[in-house]
Amino acid sequence: MTPAIAEALVAAVTEVLEVAAFELADLAEPTAPPPDAVATSLKFHGPPSGAVRMWIDPAEARAFAVATLGCDDPEPAVVDDAVRELTNMIAGHVLGRAWPDVCIALDGAELGAAGSVDAYAVHFTGEHGRIAVGMEVTP
Question: Count of CB atoms within 10 A of residue 2's CB?
């Protein structure tokens, strides 16, 4: 991953969390995802093509859903939907910032198993837990 993409990921996560969930997040040292992490992946097609991957601690995922949806006790399926939307917002933000004049199609974000720590370029600590995001790009 290029430094420009890593920088765009940092900006995307911090800005999306602040605007959508009124939450601040700080960069953190890389760590392996916990066994109960909520993990997503989203493919995009351009050029460029590639994928965005994210994992988030369950408490952070729930807090994001509460903040963005305005519900006090979201069902697990609602939290999953909110995490998929968070992945979509981050991907759109990064792609629009890195390739502002290119039309890039996004697939829907899918839930899945988290990858190894190496799959995630940037790691954050939010007010309720950790988030890690990575992006693969092919020309």
Answer: 11
Alpha-carbon gap, residue 90 to 122, rounded angstroms = 12
**What's the total number of domains in the chain?**
1
How far is it, in rounded angstroms, from Cα 61 to Cα 82? Answer: 8
- pLDDT at residue 112, as a whole number: 95
Asked whether the beta carbons of 131 and 54 are under 8 A apart, the reply is: yes
The CA angle 9-10-16, to the nearest 5 degrees, is: 85
What's the predicted TM-score (pTM) here? 0.94
In this structure, what DSSP letter does residue 119 have? G
Note the pLDDT tens digit of each residue in 16-25: 999 999 999 9
Domain interval for residue 40: 3-138
Instruction: Write down the pLDDT at residue 61.
Output: 97
